[in-house]
């Protein structure tokens, strides 16, 4: 069964083949469930001209914000970007191309891409700047716009547990965009907290089947919290 073993032992192996000007789909929501080690290694590689698809762009100095520091991201396709001052600066200066996408539409773009569906109709965004220039059709008396799905050269994903065959379990809200991203990469790399032997995971609890996973690495995670709110005493 050695041929089914997806485990690699270094980030260099995990991201082998990543080149300038590729598209990278990243899981996570805010700083929850982000592939910290994989992002950090992309920074070390110095890969540039990237199109990055993710719900958001991390924060200043952490997550995908690390890649903004060295201008490694050329274009960002995202839903929410309000936590990153450097992102704002690069957007306003014209250094960074940004395609803002409604959150549910972004999730469906990834899911559809992974399912081999090239495009789909949605009512979200009709009559707004999001819908400008897109095909419109009417179904049951309501207008819908055509949205193209998304696939990437690489998908970088953060899981909780996985077996050596690449079957992945996510923990609580860290599931977020990760299982969607995992299906949409030509090469999908999953970074997890624990790797177990095949047969140790309950099949009914697996979120991403190993068929979608090309490489698996065990990482360590800081798990920062974006904002801490405390009650005034």
Automatic annotation (TrEMBL):
Signal peptide: none
This protein's UniProt keywords: Transferase
InterPro entries registered for this protein in UniProt: 3-oxoacid_CoA-transf_A, CoA_trans_fam_I, CoA_transf_BS, NagB/RpiA_transferase-like
SUPFAM superfamilies linked: NagB/RpiA/CoA transferase-like (SSF100950)
Gene3D superfamilies per UniProt: Glutaconate Coenzyme A-transferase
GO molecular function: CoA-transferase activity
NCBIfam families per record: pcaI_scoA_fam
Family: Belongs to the 3-oxoacid CoA-transferase subunit A family.
Name this protein carries in UniProt: CoA transferase subunit A
């Amino acid at each position: 069964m050695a041929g089914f073993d997806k485990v690699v032992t270094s980030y260099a192996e995990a991201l082998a083949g990543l080149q300038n000007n590729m598209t990278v789909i990243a899981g996570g929501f805010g700083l929850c469930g982000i592939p910290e080690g994989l992002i950090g290694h992309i920074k070390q590689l110095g890969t540039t001209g990237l199109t990055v698809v993710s719900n958001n762009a991390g924060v200043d100095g952490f997550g995908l914000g690390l890649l903004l520091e060295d201008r490694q991201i050329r274009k960002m396709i995202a839903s929410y970007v309000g936590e990153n001052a450097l992102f704002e600066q690069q957007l306003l200066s014209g250094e960074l191309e940004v395609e803002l996408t409604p959150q549910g539409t972004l999730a469906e773009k990834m899911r559809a891409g992974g399912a081999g569906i090239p495009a789909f109709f949605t009512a979200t965004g009709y009559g707004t700047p999001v819908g400008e220039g897109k095909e419109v059709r009417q179904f049951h008396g309501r207008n819908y716009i055509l949205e193209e799905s998304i696939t990437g050269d690489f998908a970088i994903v953060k899981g909780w547990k996985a077996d050596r065959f690449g079957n992945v379990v996510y923990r609580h809200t860290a599931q977020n965009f990760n299982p969607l991203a995992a299906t949409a990469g030509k090469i999908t790399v999953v970074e997890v907290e624990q790797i177990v032997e095949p047969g140790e995971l309950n099949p009914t609890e697996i979120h991403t089947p190993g068929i979608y996973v090309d490489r698996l690495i065990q990482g360590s995670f800081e798990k920062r919290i974006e904002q801490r709110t405390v009650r005034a005493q």
